[in-house]
Amino acid sequence: MELGAFNSATFDSNEYANGLIAPVGKDDITTALAKLNFGIDDVATQLKNLVTEHHHALLAQAAGIGDLEGSLSSVTHGLDDVTASLEKLRQKIRVPYQSLASHVLRLHRLQQATDVLRRTARFVILARRLDAQMLDVDKSPAVDPPTQPQSPNPVALASADSSDDVRNFGVEGERERTIAKAALSVAELVALLDEATEQQAPQVQQGEDEDEQDDAHRHSFEAVRIPLRAINAVNRHIPAVEEARSKVSREMEHMVLAGLQNLNQSMLASSLQTAYNLHVLPQLVQSLVSDLSDAVDSRIRAAFDLARLSKDVSAKEPPSNSSLVYKSRLRTEPTNLTAPQWTAALWTRLETLIEELAGACIKVYTLERVLRLKKDPVTQTTFLEEAMKVLENKPTSTFWGTLARALEKHCRDAAKGSTFMAQTLSTGYPRFLRLFHEFFAKISVHTDTVYAQQQQSPETIVTLRSISHFENLYLSRVSGRLNEAAASALANVSRGAPPGAADGVAVARAYVNELDAARFDPLLVRSVARVVGSAMDNLAIRVDGYVIKDRSATTLLGPLATPQQNLNAQMASFLYHCEGRMIALEKDYPENTAAIFSQGVKNLRAIYMKAVEPLLQSIRREISAILARLHRVALGKGLDGAMGGMGGGASPYMKELCDKLAFIRAEPLAKFQVGDLLNEWVAAIVRHVIRTFVLHVSIARPLGESGKLQLTSDMTELEFALDAFMKDPAPLSAGGVKKSPKPLKLLDAVGEEYRMLRALRPLLFLENSQLASPMAQGVPPLVVLHHIFVRSPMPLPHTLHGWHEAEYVKWVEEHTPAEAWTLVEGGLSHWEKLHDSTDHDGAQEYIDLAREVLAQARASFSR
C-alpha cells in the first residue's frame, strides 16, 4: 500500500476517502469500504508496532515535558513581577513629565506674548520715527524729475570723474539723508510685518500614543509665531507705512533720474543708498541698465529709419502755393533732386545719434562708478557686488554689448533695405567713422576708453566692428578706384602706348590719396593698406604679363633700341616711379601700417627688375665677349720691332667696346626713366668693364714692350669711354621727368675699380723685384700674381687647366679671392713638382715673388 499520500502535510482524510469512493459505482461501494477498513486496520497495526519499538524514547520525552512545565511556570511569574515594576516606574515619571510639559507650554506662551510686545513696541517706535522723518521730507524742497534730456556739462563731469573715493562725491543734501533714513525705517517696518507669518501646525496622525501626541502639540505651539498684522495697535500704523514706502520709492526714482541726468554723483549715491536700504538696489540697477539699453536700441533704430527720415525731409519742404499739385505717397528712397536734402538730413540724424549715445554711455559709466565706490557703512559691501546678484554682466559691459548688437543689426538692415543708405554711408564712411571718433573723444573724459594710434580699447574695437558692413562697402569702392587707376594707365599698352613715369606717379597718387583719406583712423588705415597692397600685387601681375621676355628685349645689335626694349623700359619706369612714391610714403605711417603694404612695394620692384635684369645680363655678356678679343691682339712684339707699326691709336676690340658702350648708354639705358637707380646700373656696368678688362690684361701673354704701350693706349681710351658712359646723354625726358638728377663722376662712383685701372698702367713697367713692393699697391694681389706668371715661363692657371681666357675670367668673378689664390698656388706647386730642384728656365725668381705676394695677400686678408 502506498503511504506517501499519508505523509503529506496537506493530507485530508475526507478528501482521500471521497477520492476513493467517487470513481466507484454504486455496486462497488461495499468493496471500497472494505478496502478502507482494511487500510485502517493496517495503519493501526503499523502504529502499534512503532510505539512498541520506540516505547523507551517516548517515555523519556514524557518525563522531560513534565520538568519543562515547572520551569515555564517560574519564568511566567518573573515576567509578571517585571511588568508590575515597569508600571510603577511609569507612574513615577509620567506625572512629573505632564506637569513639566504644562509649565513649558505656559512659558512658551509667555515668551510669545513677550515677543509680540517687543516687536509691537519696536514697530510703534519705528512708525513714529518714520512719521517724523516724512514730515522732514515734506518740509524740504522736492527733487524735480527730469523732463527732457540735456547735454551733460563736460566741466562738471571732469571734476566729478577726478574723484577716487566715495567721500568726494560731494556734499550730500539734508533731504537726501532724510530719505535714506526713512527708507531704512520703512525696510525695518516691512521686515517686522513680514517676518512672523503664521505656519500650519503639524497634523497628529492616528496610531500615535499619548506621549507622541503631546510632543506634537508642544512643537506646534513653538512653531507658531504671532504676526504683527494680527495686533490692532499695529494695524492702525500700516496704511501710513505703506504710504511712506510709496513716497520714498517715488523720491528715490526721481533722485536716480535726476542724478543720472545731471551726472550728480552725490544725489545718485544717496538714491542708491535709499534703494539699498529698501532692499531693491539690484532690481533698481537692473531696471536702469535695461532702460538705457532700450533707449540706445530705439535711438539707433530711429536714426536708420527711412520712413522717419522721409517725414523729416517732407516736413522741411516749403508748402506749395498751388492746391492742384499732386502729392504722391511717402517715398522711402530719394530722387535725384531730393538726394542732397536726404543726405543732409541723414547726417544730421547721425550726429544727433552720436550725441545721445555719448550721453547714455557717460550715464552708464557714472552709475557703475558710484556703484563701485559706494559701500554699505555696516557690512562694507560695495553696491556693485550687491547689484551683480541679479545682473549677468557689469552695466558698462551690458551697454557696449547692446550698442554693438544694435548698430550691427540696424546698419545691416538699412544697407540691405535701402540703396540710398548703403551708397551714402559707404561713400561717406570716413565721415561716418569720424562721428564715432567724436563719440570716443566725448566719453574718454569720463571713462577709461582709449582710441588712439598706439592703443585701442576692446570696447571701441567691438563698436567699430559693428559697422563693418559699411566699411566693407567702402573698401570695395577703394579697391575699385585703385584698380580703375591701374587699368587706365595700362589701357593703351596693346596699342603700342605703354605707361610711363607720369602714369606711375598718377597711380601712386591714387594709392596715397586713399591712404591719406583713412589716415585719421588706426584701424581703417590698416584695412586700406591691405587693399592698397592687394592693388599693387594685381598691378605687378598685370605689368608682368606685358613685359617682353624674348630675345628681342635683350639684343644689342643697334643702332637703335628695339621696340620691345622701349616697352620694357617704359614699364620699368612706370613701376619705378610708383614704387618710389610708396617707399617715401612708408616713413609717414606707423611701422605696423607700413608693413602691410610694404610687400606690395617689394613686388613692384621685383617685377621691374625682372624686366631689367635680362638686359643688364646681356650687356655684361656682350662686354665680356668684346674684352675677350684682347687676346687676339699681338702684344708680344718688342719695342724696336713695333716702332714702325705704332700709330698711337686704340686696338680694334677697344674701339668696338667704346662704340658698344656709347650705343648702350644712348639707346637701351636712356629709355629708362628711373632716376638714381639708372646711376646704380651704370656704375655696376662700369665696375664690370674695369674688372673684366684688368683681368684680361693681367693674363695677356705674351706681353712685350710694344704690347704694354698698346695696353696703355687702350686704358686711356677706356677711361674716356667710361667717363662719357657715365654722363647722362639726355637729362630730361619728353615728359619732363628728370632721369639722372645727380651726374656721376668716374672716381666717385667706382673709386676702387678706377684706382685699380690707374694702378695697372705703372704695374706693367715695374721691374721684377718691384712687383712685391708697395709700388704695386692699388692692384689686387691676383692681378699681380697673373702678371708674375706672364713674365715667367710658368703656365697661367687657365692654361694649366685647359680653360679659355673668358672662362677663367668668369670663374674668377664667381669665386672669392682666397679661392683664386689657392688655384694660383696650386699652379706653383705643380710647376715645382715637375721641375724638382732644377731651374733651367729661371722660374725660381718668379716663384719666390709669387709666394711673397701670396703671403702678403693672406696676411692682409686675415687682418
From TrEMBL:
Residues 143-152 have a biased composition (Pro residues). InterPro entries: Cog5, COG5_helical, COG5_N. Residues 5-130 form the Conserved oligomeric Golgi complex subunit 5 N-terminal domain. Signal peptide: none annotated. GO terms for cellular component: Golgi membrane; Golgi transport complex. Residues 138-165, 198-217 are annotated as: Disordered. Residues 228-440 form the Conserved oligomeric Golgi complex subunit 5 helical domain. GO terms for biological process: intra-Golgi vesicle-mediated transport. PANTHER family: CONSERVED OLIGOMERIC GOLGI COMPLEX COMPONENT 5, CONSERVED OLIGOMERIC GOLGI COMPLEX SUBUNIT 5. This is Conserved oligomeric Golgi complex subunit 5.
